[in-house]
Amino acid sequence: IYTKDASRLRKTFGRSLSDLISLSLSLSLSLSLSVAWASHFQRLFVSFIGADWIFLMILGFIMAVISFVMDVFVDNFTEAHRWIYDLADSHVLLQYLAWVAYSMFLMCFAAGFANIVSIQAAGSGIPEMKTCLRGVMLQEYLTFKTLVSKVISLICVLGSELPVGKEGPFVHIGSMCAALLCKFMSLFSGIYKNEARNKEMMTVGCAVGIGCCFASPIGGALFSLEVTSMFFVARNYWRGFLSATFGAFIFRLLPVWNRQEDTLMALYATKYRLDFPFDLQELPVFAVMGIVCGFGGAFFVYLYGKITLFVKKQKATNSFLMKKRLLYPALVTVLISTLSFPPGFGQFMAGQLTQRESLISFFDHRTWSNHGIVADFDNDDHLAAWKHPQANVFVILSIFVIMKFWMSAISITLPIPCGSFVPIFVIGAAFGRLVGEGLATLFPDGFNMDGHVYHITPGVYAVVGAAALTAGVTHTISTGVIMMELTGQINYALPILISVILSNMISQSLQPSIYDKVIRIKKLPYLPMLSWGHRDKYNIHVGDFMKREVRYITLNSTYRDIFKILRSGNLKTLPLVKSTESMLLLGSVERAQLLALLKQRSQHLRKENAPTIPISYKVHFQIEEWEEQQLDEQVNFNNCKIDPAPFQLVERTSLHKTHTMFSVLNLDYAYVTSIGRLVGVVSLKELCKAIEGSLPADGVRLRPILATFRDRGVRGSWTETTELRKLLDHQIS
Known about the structure:
The model is unreliable at 611-621 and 694-733 (pLDDT under 50). By secondary structure, this protein is mainly alpha-helical. The termini are far apart. It is built from 26 helices and ten strands. It has helices spanning 2-49, 52-87, 92-117, 126-134, 144-159, 167-185, 195-214, 217-228, 236-257, 283-313, 315-323, 327-339, 355-362, 393-411, 421-442, 458-474, 478-487, 493-510, 514-522, 542-545, 559-568, 591-608, 628-631, 655-665, 684-692, 707-732; strands at residues 369-370, 373-374, 447-449, 452-454, 553-554, 573-577, 585-590, 648-650, 669-674, 677-683. The chain crosses the membrane at residues 20-41, 53-75, 96-121, 170-189, 201-225, 237-257, 283-305, 326-345, 393-414, 421-440, 460-483, 490-507.
């Protein structure tokens, strides 16, 4: 019995063991297959999420939602402002207090919130983004804290109805969203850890910012090209267009989804005639408007600069305003709100209309007046605000242009998130409407062409004026494209482009753009553009404005020499030459590498002289007596990273070529050599001074126009031959 039970037990155990082994093998195989499939799906998910088009669509969607939500809040603030104003209609004084106090409260809250949370949220943000894309990363302008501060403060600023816009700040918001999204996407794809690629995505963010404000993807992409980048990377075209198009589509789709609009259409849709849009006799008028807007844009930039510098140069006022940061915005808000109070002076400038309502009335296809007298419109029509019993339409529009001009220039100097695009847009539209109404009065029967009568449409002149004045302030051509997408009128492309180009030509020859003006005032490290009238850009050479006194190190330098050079300045990189006599440039060494050499030397001295080193020893601040002899030893550069090919220029390099190289390569400095010998250095500072036509620090004047021909014909070849002979003689000896 025992034998039978044992054999039966062995058979049963054997079968169980084999089943257990097969089960474990199948489980391990299934587990390995599951792991393989999981890793495969993970790679697919990571590659899918990390794809460019996914990033661009997410960015466009985020910006569209932010823009739509911001518009909803601003509309609610505006309606609340009107409701409080109408609630106090029993007494004019109560209406005035409600009108002014509401705007002042929102403005003070916006200024205080931006100052407490992130002061970097103030201003437009476009100048800082230009600086970042130039290569100088201002990380504090790209944080999540700055994003929150910018969005919330901007909502309150726009709700206060001050003459400022959201387009400039939205470019900054788009760049911040792109930078933060890159950090998030780096969790899925390592390519988003690349700094150069992230800069390209910031450029896309600038395009989406404009696209989600005006629902103009083409104009937004072109605007980002013109404003933020001096040289645009071609591969960013499709990225900018894709993200801006998707963002603009979502931005216009959300009002339909929210039942605010019936279908997708232009933001400021117009009803101009399409069969005969304009007459050829009107083209000279459009050209003159472009010229006038060019002068007007240059004057606006000039006025803004004067106001800003006046506030900063008044030391007592500036010190007081720095302590009372809310006082300046409050005073300006009270002043502007008082002047725009509808029962007061605001009745002469349609003070009860918002900027959007003003644009709608300017772009209207109807003619307002008959011989200067505004026609009767319904009370719920925006055009009724421009009718006044004691003034005709020309007086009303002239007052509006003049008042809004200086009001906008003052408003954008406040320490709040604000842009100049929309207020300039409104002023240009008002000027164009003024011209159009004047022509409609002079030619009430219109133009007669081959038996066809074409009546003048003043709204068309408003469209052209808005694009031209904005182009004169921003120095961009893309404002014309934005205007076409904004109004849905491509038939007027020729008049718009003519006025925009002429406005650019005039303004660029007189003043920098509004963004470059801010860069100069804030002294941001940015290279200005060469103007069209810069005649000496080919006749001025590097040798005329370079810095000849260069701090350098040689192969024979001692530790004491390096210590003195490092203490004498904060240069990030120092040139390495063969010797003081030859000055042959061998390369460049970063400051961090030289500090590492000194640190290694000090550690070596510590090991050799451990008993004699005092406890208070510090490498950078204190030199003990026992080190004096050691510092005179020659430096060993074998363990030092040396850049063998730093960027170099020659003395004969023109200003134009130098500017191009600094712009394309994002250079901060370049060494100037003559037959391999170091003769000077050019930094961004010297180049900016040369472009602006000022004198360098050493007082050397720029070369005259004929200097190139004189040197080339008289002494150019002799000088180079002499220097080459000296160099060869030195090498032989």
